[in-house]
UniProtKB/TrEMBL annotation:
Keyword ATP-binding found: yes
EC number per UniProt: 6.3.2.2
Top-tier EC class: ligase
UniProt keyword Nucleotide-binding present: yes
Keywords recorded for this protein, A-Z: ATP-binding, Ligase, Nucleotide-binding
Protein name (Swiss-Prot/TrEMBL): Putative glutamate--cysteine ligase 2
Amino acid sequence: MKGHPTVGVEEEFLLVDRQSGEPVARNRAVAHDAATQGVELQLELTSCQVETTTAVTSTSSELHAELTRLRRITAAAAANQQAHLLAVALPPTVPHAFPVTTTPRYRRMADHFGMLAHEQGICGCHVHVAVPSRESAIDVSNRLRPMLHLLLALTANSAVYRNADSGYASYRSMLWTRWPSSGPPPYFESTGRYDTTVETLRRAGAVLDDGMVYWDVRPSAHFPTVEVRVADVPATVAETVLVATIIRAAVMCALEAQERGDPMPRYPDCVLRAANWRAAHDGLDGQAADLADNCSTVPAQVLLMRLIEHLRPALELLGDYDMAREELTRIAEQGNGAMRQRRAWTRGEKVTDVISELATATTTFK
């Protein structure tokens, strides 16, 4: 297994009022404040969201330090604007509206997609891993398709939505499927087939540009990377580091398999969507689909530990095998985002308890 590809992470966050917990349209003010501390935030589709982008990193410890720095500065900038920064994939409260950020691209999206754009407030996590070429990115994407649902179960962080338990660990992923280019991607035989498919979506008006190709894994539109987009934004830095480390190791193994010419399973799109649905519904503390056994259900934690064992050669090269096993065990015991939300909600069905739990988790850096 040759080389250690670099990794970078984008995290999207929600801005909420410190008293009511309702989303607040203050992303420009927060971004201006963060810029004075040397952090450039991206403005998201709605003005109650911001996005951080790490530097390119080479180790999990570097990534942890970067994510900690960005969350700490951004949370302080939000506090200066009387807002909480929440690492949560959907707003737990009932918002009056999600005003669209006033940039030409976002206004165009809002005009074209209507309420689909206005009813957002959806926050994900995007992991970029360097690959040698665009052709490699297509092949790696194909090989990663069967494990995407497990990454969703691991990071599920949108159980409470609009002052109610949604019935899903990741309700974000259910709402996200309304976009016509979302979900598990098709299997692509070549870059040409990928480009033809994207152009077809563009001609149909289903996407307006390459940035709107929202598949769960794709060649990056801007970087020489494969980009995995399936995850809810994780509640804590440690969870983000774990999912990024697993993805990095998976890309390394996929590149090795590509070099050897190993065949890859071609599961039907409907099977992958079913696996995603089950992962979104149950999350980390429930059942997940075992694709290798005709979608029989197995505890998600068992399948994730099997995935770590499958990726062990790459994880050991990275020096992260023990960390990955220990972190998965710890997160399963302490709870990922969805589990934290539900524990807080069941204390009395008070959304303020959920907001408080999420605000604490967002700035938990151990």
